[in-house]
Amino acid sequence: MVTGATAPGKKSLQTTLEISRAVKAYYGGVQAAKQEGKPIVWSYGLIPREIFHAVGAPVMYLEHLPLLISTKQLSGHYCEIAEEEGFSRDVCAFHRCFIGCAAEEEKHPYLAKFWAPPDLIIASNLPCMSESKSFLYAVNHFNCPYFFIDAPINIWGKEIPDYAVEYYAGQLGEALDFLGGYGYRLDWAKLKEAVALSRRLVYLWQEIDGYRKAIPAPMGVVDGLTCAFPLIQLPGTKFGVELYERLRDEIKERVENKIGVLEEEKLRLLWMGVPPFYNVGLLNYPEQYGAIVVKSFVEYLAGGAFDPAIMDPEKPLESLATKALVDIVNPTYKNMIDFDVQIAKDFSVDGQIALVKRSCGLIPAALRLVKDAVYQEVGIPTTIFDLDGMDLREYDDAATKANIDAFIETLLASKRRG
Question: Could you check whether the bond before residue 216 is cis, i.e. omega within 30 degrees of 0?
């Protein structure tokens, strides 16, 4: 359903459509595995996906399925079901949505196309406390075994000490042992190959980013959000690499032919925080002013914001541990702030839109620090306002667009004066 206040996002790339089809095919594969009697894994938290691909385990990810539900404006319904189960409205909307999906007996037809109940659960405390608790509802509801991965909080920045890497690598190894007990035996050669493919995927994503820095922008953020899927669910797979090779080639051609999303590009914006997946069209809203959102911070929340050279296929578990621990959403906030500042520089950004997701205690806590940093180091302003990216019940269309209107008009006036 699309209301008068919401609209689907506009996409510009052929590869985006291909990746959209890959999303549906991925969940179709999980359902097929369930029908074949294979144990289905539910993964909670930013656990390196490569371990699942290396053992051939079909996995549903908490961080992705609620986004699909939200695009059809169903997330509010499932959040309400979770609230009826006793969960506070202050609990992360991603988690409430997933809990509601689990609790409902008669699934909505759209959800039913993607749904497969768990036989095993692997959970983690990375990146937040909500991750470390919400999985317990599913454990009790489906009465299935689980394994919990404890991730150290990053207090070091980009240089993770050996003892932290060893500790987390040991946790990943134990998770693989747990999966092995249910038929998913590890072949070390496949794990090494998965790490090599994952490293290649990130190199490709950074090459793609290099082309996206061009003016005019060859790719907008609506395409970017869809095209982040291989980073979220396909690291460690040949298919993910193939998709990004095609995406790179398409964007390269657009840059060489000076094909931009907008005919006249007046402003370039960065989107910080979770965008409204129930109203992705809002990301196109600034285009009426000649302003394009060139990048969304969410694209990096599943990886890609680190130097892929840290990954060594000969040390697969240590590489995956380091990759996870330097993730920009693993507190504290130095890596997140530094990365946001660098994006603002690299993408020639004129302003940043930052959103406070009320039910999230992680990203919103960094917004003032990010706002100050990009202003001091890059000289660009940031507007911050409330907007829950998952729960349509929290959305005020008039107030949201008024905030964006005022911010863009201020930026354009500043440019005219300059």
Answer: yes
Contact (CB, 8 A) for 49 and 59: yes
Q: What is the pLDDT along the chain (418 residues), one digit of tens a residue?
A: 444 567 888 888 999 999 999 999 999 999 999 999 999 999 998 899 999 999 999 999 988 889 899 999 999 999 999 999 999 998 999 999 999 999 999 999 999 999 999 999 999 999 888 888 889 999 999 999 999 999 999 999 889 999 999 999 999 999 999 999 999 999 999 999 999 999 999 999 999 999 999 999 999 999 999 999 999 899 999 999 999 999 999 999 999 999 999 999 999 999 998 899 999 999 999 999 999 999 998 888 767 888 999 999 999 999 999 999 999 888 767 888 999 999 999 999 999 999 988 778 778 888 899 999 999 999 999 999 999 888 888 899 999 999 999 999 999 998 877 6
The beta-strand segments (E) located in 366-407 are 382-386
Whether 355 and 275 have beta carbons less than 8 Å apart is answered as yes
Say if residues 343 and 349 touch (Cβ distance below 8 Å). Answer: yes
Nearest to 196 by CA among 154, 135, 237: 237
Structure token pair of residue 140: 């009790």
Q: Is 86 left (phi over 0), alpha (psi -120 to 50) or beta?
A: left
d(C-alpha 163, C-alpha 187), whole Å: 25
The burial of 334, by beta-carbon neighbours within 10 Å (0-12 exposed, 13-18 middle, 19 or more buried), is given as: middle
* Cα–Cα distance list, 40 to 97, 116, 291, 293 (Å): 20, 7, 44, 37
